[in-house]
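Honest question from a wet-lab person: if I give you the sequences of every part of a complex, can you actually get the arrangement of the whole thing, not just the pieces? Trying it with mine:
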Amino acid sequence: MTEFSVDAIRKGGKLALSRVLSRVEADDESGRAALDALFAYTGKAHKIGVTGPPGSGKSSLVNALAHHLRRSYPESRVAIIAVDPTSPFTGGAILGDRVRMPDLQNDPGVFIRSMATRGALGGLADATLSLSQVFDAAGYDYVLIETVGAGQAEVDIVTLAHTTIVVDMPGMGDDIQAIKAGILEIADILVVNKAELPGADQTYRNLVLMIEMGYRGTGRINGGHHRLTIATEARSIEPEGWLPPVLKTTALTSQGIAELEQAIHQHRAYLQASGTWNAKENSAIRQTIDKLILKELSENWKKTLPAGLYETVMQSVSQRKLSPRAAARALLAYNSE
Amino acid sequence: MPEKKIRVLIAKPGLDGHDRGAKVIARALRDDGMEVIYTGLRQTPQMIAEAALQEDVDVVGLSILSGAHNALVPYVLEKLKENGQDNVFVFLGGIIPESDIPGLLAKGVTKVYGPGTDTRVVCQDIRAALADRA
Ligand code: B12
Ligand SMILES: Nc1nc2c(ncn2[C@@H]2O[C@H](COP(=O)(O)OP(=O)(O)O)[C@@H](O)[C@H]2O)c(=O)[nH]1
Ligand SMILES: [Mg+2]
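Yes, you can. This is the full assembly:
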């Protein structure tokens, strides 16, 4: 096992960073120790989630955006976490997002890490948050996270990212149906990618309309006068909150990417001015602590159970002599005697 | 603790556009439970080594049908070493004349495969190589 060094990672050592990412992903002892040691250096990176249906152009958009960020801010460094699904049948995965990120391959200021879900649902892997923290501690200014994009609402990204970009494209059938199921609510910025294709304007108008309907009565849209103009530019700070802009991009030619970058920065400014940035961070941290407590409690408690007891109780449950709840209570009670 | 996942980078160096073999191998390794990072066509040795570094892979699989293996493969090996990744196994497949194989093995390639390779053999060889290292 590699000796882990906070120093090497903080100094930009890519080998050290890459190996720690693996340990943290595996959630083994050295990975946990590394994460604990690195936590003090986190809290600076802007974490940006990119979600949307497969084929909508998430990877291409991440490519264009990261490339643009590196040009606008040559001093800044960009990390990318690209998540793809693990096959439930074989446990294997093909992680192919790099194919769509050709502009970043020779850029020393960009670090791309592909990740398999390893059984997690919700569009991310269990360790995605931890990996983003490692990048944060390593001094990466932006962490772009591409979710699986399985089509259903991938709400996990919201807890993790400061800014969530939802990508859609023309010709996905009924757009309203496609993104109704919760995905619209999670968007801080909506993108119609492949905007050069026929039907893009229709998709764009549908999204603008849905945003208007969704936010009507929140005070962020006055009387519908802004029907189209609300969407043409990213809203900056408003006292009432953030109105997600709808943007058109063509990732392959970088058309609209400057506007996307601007919207991201406006969202960041909004988050910071409204206190939402800290609130988001804290709620993510709270969730992490709660999860760890549950995990530690149950792991430690299981260790104290007499061997075979769990299986015996389990048998009674499968024979329908006990309900799962009764079984859980019985097991817990046994130990507390 | 789940078993450690085997991570493999499948790359096509140079201007070679024959990508069927690479895709067949990528799928076979996936079906064998490995995590396969596919980087696509037209990769320079520099790009391949950098991707291997960022992805912390155990194995780099190169697929070359263009005849440029003698120029490209040693360069990839060199770059991997430069990055401190000399513990990574390099597997090579494609159209590689018999007479070139000893030289490539001597430079550090673990194994070379030609047309008609049974993908199950590749999976076994990768697992065996990693087991030996452990
Ligand atoms: C199909 C084919 C094409 C297709 C490719 C389609 C595609 N997207 O892949 C097309 C028609 C586009 C094509 C074009 C050309 N081709 Co062509 N093509 C072939 C052909 C007939 C079959 C290749 C193939 O797909 N096999 C099926 C796959 C599954 O097999 P495989 O790649 O060998 O992979 C297996 C093993 O080698 C191994 N393996 C392969 N990679 C890896 C990697 C790892 C890590 C491992 C472990 C194993 C492994 O496992 C695989 C599974 O068994 C071969 C002849 C042949 N019989 O090989 C010629 C051949 C490769 N082509 C050749 C040539 C010359 C060309 C052209 C230059 C022709 C021209 N003058 O235009 C162009 C170049 C195109 C380019 N940009 O690179 C020559 C190469 C000569 C050489 N290297 O000395 C060959 C050998 C034909 C010949 N006998 O002359 N070609
Ligand atoms: N026409 C067009 N195609 C695009 C655009 N962006 C991406 N694509 C293509 O859409 C396909 C899917 O892109 P990808 O980035 O892999 O999408 P993902 O699955 O959401 O990550 C690829 O063939 C891309 O080349 C675009 O702006 N216009
Ligand atoms: Mg993708």
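Two things worth pointing out. The CA atoms of residues 43 and 125 of chain B lie 25 Å apart. The helical segments of chain B are 20-31, 45-55, 69-82, 101-107, 119-133.
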